[in-house]
Amino acid sequence: MKPNIHPDYQVVAFHDTAADSYFIIGSTIKTDRTVEIDGNTYPYVPIDVSSDSHPFYTGKQKTVSTDGRVAQFNRRFKNLSTAKKAD
């Protein structure tokens, strides 16, 4: 390996601001901010989404059911087709 070409690997505190949780993970990201957690000082990086707040991982995902054109047609004209059969 060539010396002085690789970024510094360090332990970083990522803060999920949506879920207000911290992840202490090794990373090469650079930041000027620090945070103290459990008596240790870590470089601090705020993030918007993590596995603690993303709907896919939390189980709060909303599924949108989009019917096809045939289902929309049948739903729209269901009353007309039953009315003609009764005549």
TrEMBL record:
Alphabetized PROSITE patterns for the sequence: RIBOSOMAL_L31
Family, per entry: Belongs to the bacterial ribosomal protein bL31 family. Type B subfamily.
Classification via Pfam families: Ribosomal_L31
Protein name in the entry: Large ribosomal subunit protein bL31B
GO BP annotations listed: translation
GO annotations of cellular component type: ribonucleoprotein complex; ribosome
HAMAP family in the record: Ribosomal_bL31_2
One term of GO molecular function: structural constituent of ribosome
Assembly with partners or alone: Part of the 50S ribosomal subunit.
UniProt keyword annotations, A-Z: Ribonucleoprotein, Ribosomal protein
Coiled coil, from the record: none
Record has Hydrolase as a keyword: no
Organism of derivation: Pseudoalteromonas carrageenovora IAM 12662
